[in-house]
Design brief:
This protein has one domain: STM4215-like. It contains three helices and six strands; from the N terminus they run ααβββαβββ. Strands 1, 2, 3, 4, 5 and 6 form a six-stranded mixed beta sheet that branches. A hairpin with a 4-residue loop joins strand 2 and strand 3.
Amino acid sequence: MIGKTIKALLTGNSTLTALVTATKMFPYVMNEDTDVPCIIYTIDSIEPEYTKKEWVLDNISFTVTSFHRDYGSLQPIVTAVRGALELKSTGSGTQDINKIYLRGFTEGYDNGADVFYTRLTFQVKINTY
């Protein structure tokens, strides 16, 4: 549903693709042989809204997680992800969306994979698909 819009906004941002190629942006899980930097995006929840007669819209929460071995090099990627998505209101294809809002931020280090990561959580309302 919203995955096509997320991918289009991420891969269509030249600032971001200069840092992470479009071939290293994945829904849910990265390919096994993918090296960092890379990005994974996931749909976390969908909450529909209805009137007494019909569906009105969906409130969608999604997360974009960026990975890099160097913490300093991760920061421009996170800034570019935010710039690619925040306040955008152009859906993919016939999808009509309201503005995308940043709702949360988490960062950390994965010892097993030896990578730093940052998760940005966004909220968007979809009016039509």
